[in-house]
Amino acid sequence: MPESIDKDNEEKSQAAANADDPLAILHVFGRLEVGPVQLEPKRLAAPYRLYRNGKAESSELIYSYEESVFEPSEPESQNLADMIAAQAALNYAAQMINRDAHIFVCVDTGETSDVDISEFVETPNDVHAGEIETSTTLAVRPRLVKMDQARPAIPEFSSRYLDFISMRGVLWYAHTRKISKSGVMGDPTKADAAKGRKIWEIMIAHLVALVEDLKYLTLDEIHHRNY
């Protein structure tokens, strides 16, 4: 049998199998490794490897800066560099899934709903264990919340560009303990279950809307390519 016909039959058989099992088209990545991070005052470099089907794809992440950003001897600088490298590696893995499996990958941790939620949440810079997250937990797992221990710890910054809720804010990294001794960034005393249910409803509605939008996009719009 000619090789081209044999290959065609194989592809048809695979397509039939995929029709019976939609999960057959999914790609499974064994693991993602990043590091060790090599740090200089103006430079961060780290290898990262994506393992699948017994093979590894390797690349190197390099960030260079015009001014000194890191102090290599300080643990804080090393931790910051590790965080930056890990985030970049996850983005790379998402791009590979999009490119090779033709599966669009995105993450919504509430960004599609922030504008609506900010209209009724009272606390500025409420980003962790504060009014929002305590409310959403009260709505679904009230027994896990100890409101008698709730204490406000609202971050304040001298620049609006550092504010977490600012429309002009930049994405920046810092150790939580440098901003809040308790780990709270917000005001959990303003939380309640009704507010939490409202937040969940908004977030779920926007997540559904996002998926509905994506359904009508073509792969040409969202498919990562090799250039």
SSE blueprint and pairings:
Blueprint lengths: L2 H18 L10 E4 L3 E3 L2 E10 L2 E10 L10 H27 L12 H4 L13 H10 L35 H4 L13 H23 L3 H4 L5
Antiparallel strand pairs: 1-3, 2-3, 3-4
Helix pairs in contact: 4-6
List the main descriptive attributes of the protein structure presented here.
227 residues, alpha+beta, Double Stranded RNA Binding Domain, Rossmann fold, 2 domains, four-stranded antiparallel β-sheet, 7 helices
CATH superfamily of the largest domain: Creatininase
Q: What CATH first level of the largest domain would be assigned? A: Alpha Beta
Structural class: alpha+beta
β-strand number? 4
Q: Quickly count the domains.
A: 2
Give the rounded overall mean pLDDT: 81
How many helices in DSSP terms? 7
Could you tell me the CATH topology label of the largest domain. Answer: Rossmann fold
Fold and architecture overview:
The chain has 227 residues and is an alpha+beta fold. The protein has two domains: 28-105, 2-Layer Sandwich (Double Stranded RNA Binding Domain); 114-208, Rossmann fold (3-Layer(aba) Sandwich). It is 40% helix and 12% strand. The chain contains seven helices and four strands; from the N terminus they run αββββαααααα. The protein has helices spanning 3-20, 75-101, 114-117, 131-140, 176-179, 193-215, 219-222, and strands spanning 31-34, 38-40, 43-52, 55-64. Strands 1, 2, 3 and 4 form a four-stranded antiparallel beta sheet that branches. β2 (38-40) and β3 (43-52) form a beta hairpin. The model has no long low-confidence stretch (mean pLDDT 81).
